[in-house]
Amino acid sequence: MTQLNTPDATTPILGNLFSYDVSSDKIIFNAPSDSYIIEQKVNGTWIQVNLEEKFDWLNTEYRVTATDQTGNSSQPQTTVINTTSGTYHPTDPTSNQIVKGSTGNDYLYGGNGDDTLISNTGSDYLYGGAGNDTLIYGGNSNAYTALLGQAGNDTYIVDKALLTSSSYIHILDNSAEENTLQLKSVSSSDISLKQSDSLIIISFNDSASTIRFGEGNLSSIVFDDGTVWNKAQIEANTIGKLLGTDGADTLQADAEISTIYGLEGNDTIQGGVQNDYLYGGNGDDTLISNTGSDYLYGGAGNDTLIYGGNSNAYTALLGQAGNDTYIVDKALLTSSSYIHILDNAAEENTLQLKSVSSSDISLKQSDSLIIISFNDSASTIRFGKNDLSSIVFDDGTVWNKAQIEANTIGKLLGTDGADTLQADAEISTIYGLEGNDTIQGGVQNDYLYGGNGDDTLISNTGSDYLYGGAGNDTLIYGGNSNAYTALLGQAGNDTYIVDKALLTSSSYIHILDNSAEENTLQLKSVSSSDISLKQSDSLIIISFNDSASTIRFGEGNLSSIAFDDGTVWNKAQIEQHIARTVFGTTGDDVIETITANQTYAYTLDAGADTVIFNVLDNTDNLGGNTKSEWTDFNLVEQDKIDLSQLLINDSGNLLDYVSVQDTQAGLIISVDRDGSSQSTYHSQELILLTDKHDTLENLIASNAFIH
C-alpha cells in the first residue's frame, strides 16, 4: 500500500541563499522552502535576526540553518558580505562570499563556495576560485577589467549600460565547464563576434567597448531579449575564422580570415595578409607563415612549419607534440626578423636552414634561449635549450644536439659533483646540474640554475635571475647595479639572504617560491622595526624606513622572516604585519584600533580625521597596537592622533612620552606609555606619517595629539 504525504526524512541541503542585484545595489535573500533561522555575526557573536527579501548593502556575515518537518537540520551555511579595497582573500574559504571592490585597483579572490564578486571603479581583477561563482561587472572607470571564474560552472554578468567608450572586459575560464555570459541592456542583434588571434571579441553596434574571451571559455551567451546562444551558435556567429575537416585540407588565410583550424588530417595551411593564427590539429600538417606577425601551432603529429617571409618582425613557430621540422630560408629574412621556435625537449625536432652554411652563423646563450645570429644580418632565430635535436645546413652539415651545445657560447655547465662556478663577461648562463653547487653571477644579466642538490646561488651586478632547482637552496642577493633581481627557490625548503647594506635606492628584489614549503628570508643590517609590509595586488611588499628599495614576495611564499636583532616572524606574524588598508571619507572620520597586533594603513581623505589608539593588550609597550602607517596625514586639515588611552599618568608634557624620527619614508612617531622616567613600558614605534617631515615641537604646537 502506498502511504501518501510521508514526511521527507532527507536532511535539507541549502543552495546559494544570497545574491546581488546590480540595478538596485541591494542584496537579495532567497529564503529556503523549509523553516529556517538567520543569524548575524555581531562583535564575534551570532545573534538571531530577521531579513527582508531585499536589503541594503552592509559589511557583515549571515548564517542560515534550515529544518524540515521531521526535524532534520541542514548544515549551517555562512555568507560573508564585504566591501573591500586592494587585495581581498576570504578568511574562511568554505563560506560563500559576496564581495564588491572599492575605488582603486582591486584584486578580489573567492573561496571554495559559490561566490559573487563585483568590480567597481579602477582596474579590477576578480578570481572566482572553486565553486559555481558569479562575477559581475560593476562599472569601472578604467579601461581594463579581468573576470576569471576558475574552477566550476561560472556566470558572468555585464550590463552594457555600465560600459564606457573604452571598456575592455577580459573573461578567462576553462573550456570544459558550463560557463555563461549574461548580457544586460542588449539583444543578440546589437553585437558582433570576431576571432582575433586566440580571443573572440564581442563588439557593440553603438559603442567602442569590447568583451573578450578565449575560445571555448563560454558555453552560452544569454541576452535581454530572451535569446540564448549555445557553444555551437557562438561558433557559428564568430567571423574571421575558418575550420577544416577530418580530411587532408588545403586552407588559406586572407583579409577576412586570420584564424584557421585544420582539425584532423594531414593539412596544408598558409597565412595571409593579417596577423594569423594557424592551428594544424591532429595529423602531419604543413603550416606556412606569410605577411604580418604569424603564430603557427603544429598540434599533434610530425608537422612541418615553414617561415614564409613575414613583413613584421616577430613570427612564432610552435611544433607541439610530435617530431617536427622547421624550415627557414635566410633569403626571406628582413633586417629585423625575429623567429621564435618553441617545442618540447623530449622530441626529435629539426631546423633546416636554407641559403646558409654552418660557417655563416653563431649561437649564443641569452637568458633561457639560444640565439642564432647571422654574420651579415641583424635577423635572429631563437629557441629554447633542447627544443632542437638537430640543425641542417644547405652545405650538407648537420649539427646534432651535442654539437649545438658545443657551438653555443655564453653558457657553462657544472658536473654531477659539488661545483664552484663563476659567471663573467663571456659567460652569463650557468647550470650547476647535480651536486651541492656554489654559483656566482658576473657583470652581465645572469641566469644561474642550481639544479638538483642543496645549492648556493649569489647574484652580482646586472639584473640576475637565480633558480635554485630541487633541494634546500640558499639564494643570496649580492648587490646588483640594476634595479631588478629575481630569486626563485623552486622545490625544497629554501633560504633567501638579503643584506640591506647592499641595496641601492632603486633595488627591487622579487622572491618567488612555493607556498607549501618552509622558506626563510634572512634580512641583514636591519631590525624588525625598520621595515613595513603592505599588500599590493597579489604581492607583499617589504619597504624600509630610510630607503626606496623594496623586496616583494607572493602570499605564503615565506614561512618566516629573520632579522639581525634576533626577531623571527613566523607565517602568522608575517600576516599580522601586512598593513590592512582603512579608507576614510571626505568628512571628519574617527577611526579606532580594534584588533591586537594588526598593522593598518590609513588613507582617510579630506576632513579633520582622528585615529584613536585603544589599549588592546595592557602588557604590551604599544597596548597591543602594531606600527602602522597614515598615508595622508595633514596638519592643515587638523588631523589628529589620539593617545589618551595609551598614556599612563600623563603629566601633560608630551616630550616625556612621545618622540619622532624623520626618515626617508616619512615621520615615525614612537610612544613610551608611562614616560621616560618610568620603566614598566619602553618607547616603541607606533605610526609612520608617510612623506611627512616635521618636528615633534611643531606637531605639539599644532595640536596634532589628543592626550
TrEMBL record:
An example GO CC term for this entry is:
extracellular region
Main subcellular localisation: secreted
List the SUPFAM superfamilies. beta-Roll
Keywords assigned by UniProt, alphabetized: Calcium, Secreted
Q: Name one Pfam family in it.
A: HemolysinCabind
InterPro entries cross-referenced by the UniProt entry: Hemolysin-typ_Ca-bd_CS (IPR018511), Hemolysn_Ca-bd (IPR001343), RTX_toxin/Mannuronan_C5-epim (IPR050557), Serralysin-like_metalloprot_C (IPR011049), T1SS_VCA0849 (IPR019960)
Cell compartment(s), UniProt: Secreted
Keyword flag Calcium: yes
In its UniProt entry, what is this protein called?
Ca2+-binding RTX toxin-like protein
Which species does the entry assign this protein to? Answer: Acinetobacter calcoaceticus
